[in-house]
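Long-time lurker, finally posting.

We've been working with Prostaglandin reductase 1 (Denticeps clupeoides) and I want a structural starting point before designing mutants. I don't trust myself to interpret raw outputs, so I'm hoping someone here can both generate the C-alpha cells and explain anything notable. Sequence follows.
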Amino acid sequence: MAQAQVWTLRKHFQGFPKNTDFELKEEKLPEPQNGEVLLEAVFLSVDPYMRYALLYCLMKEGDVMIGQQVARVIQSKNLKFPVGSHVTTHCGWRTHYLSNGSDLVLVLPEWPKNLPLSLALGAIGMPGLTALYGLEEVCQIKSGETLLVNAAAGAVGIIVGQIAKLKGCKVVGCAGSEDKVAFLKQLGFDEAFNYKTVRSLEEALKKAAPDGYDCYFENVGGHFSSVVMPQMREFGRIAVCGSISMYNDTEPQKGPYVHPEMIFKQLRMEGFLVHRWPHKHPESLKRLLAWQQQGKLQWREHVTEGFVNMPAAFMGMLKGDNIGKAVVKA
Ligand SMILES: NC(=O)C1=CN([C@@H]2O[C@H](COP(=O)(O)OP(=O)(O)OC[C@H]3O[C@@H](n4cnc5c(N)ncnc54)[C@H](OP(=O)(O)O)[C@@H]3O)[C@@H](O)[C@H]2O)C=CC1
Ligand SMILES: CCCCC/C=C/C=O
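Top reply, 14 upvotes:
Generated this for you. Predicted structure of Prostaglandin reductase 1:
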C-alpha cells in the first residue's frame, strides 16, 4: 500500500492566497488492480489558473489542489504504461496517484534523454501550446506584423515572443524586473521594458512601436489592457489568453471600456483556452520539440525543490518570482 501526500484547498482564496489557505494531508492508496498503474510525481506545475479556477467552481474547500504533473510509473498492471515510463496527468498536487490509465498521456516517445522532463509542463507542454494556438489560431499572425505580449518573461510569454520572431514579426515584451527584461532581449525580443518602473506605460508602448500593434497577446488584463487598446492598429487582433492582474481582486475592476477602439479600428478580440484544439496537440508538441532541438526555441525554468513547498512556489509565481516556467521538483 502506498502513502500519498496531497495539498488540499483548506479555505477559498480571498485576495492574494495565504499559507493558511492550504493543508497538507496524507492518503493511503490501494495496490493497483488489473489495468491500473501507480504513479510517483517527478515535477509538478504551478499555474495562474489555479488561482481563479475557484470562480468557475473547479475546486471547493477540502478538494485536492488542481494541477498537472509529470509522473513516473512505479507499479503497473497496464501494458500501455510499463514501470519506468513517464506520463503527464492532471491529478493535482499529490506525490502518488492510482490511475486506470484513461487520464494519462505518455511523454512523447521521441523525447531526448538529455532534455528535462519538466519541459513537458512548460515549453513543450500546456504553456507552449497556449503560445502557439494564441498566435496561429487566434491572432493568425503574419510575417512583418508587430506583436505585443505582457507577462512576457513567464512560461507562456517567452514562447510567444520566440515563435513570433520565428514567424518574422517585430516583438515587444513587458515584464516586471530588469533581469526579466535582460532575458527577453537575450531571447531576441526587439523591444522589452519593465512595466513597473517606466514613467508612463502609454509612452513606453508608443516608443517601442510608434506605428502601433497588429497583434496583442494579452496575459495581464485590467489597466494594462486599457492602455494598449488605443495603440492597436486597424484590423488588429487581440488574443485574450489571461488577465493575471485581476485574479486576486476582491472587487471587480471598472473600465475604461473597449468599444470605441473595437469599432473604429475594426479590431478582433477573442478569448481562448488551450483545450480548444486537442486534436492538434500531438503535432503541435512535436513542432515545439523540433524547434527546441534545432536551437530555435530557448527555455528557462524557475524550479522549487520539494513537494512540501508547493504553496510557496504557487504564491511566488503569482508575485512574479519566476523567469520562465515555475515548476516544483518533487
Ligand atoms: N487561455 C489559456 O488557455 C491559458 C492562459 N494562461 C494565462 O496566461 C498568462 C500567463 O501564464 P503563465 O505563463 O503560466 O504564467 P507566468 O509564468 O507568466 O507567471 C505569472 C506572471 O504574471 C506576472 N504578473 C503577476 N501579477 C501581475 C500583474 N498584476 N500585472 C502584470 N503582470 C503580473 C508576473 O510576472 P511580472 O514579473 O512580469 O509581473 C508572473 O511571473 C496568465 O494570465 C494565465 O492565466 C496560461 C495558460 C493557458
Ligand atoms: C485545467 C487546465 C486549464 C488551462 C487553461 C488555463 C487558463 C488560464 O490560465
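Before you design anything, note these points.
The first helix runs from residue 49 to 52.
Residues 147 and 215 are 5 Å apart (CA to CA).
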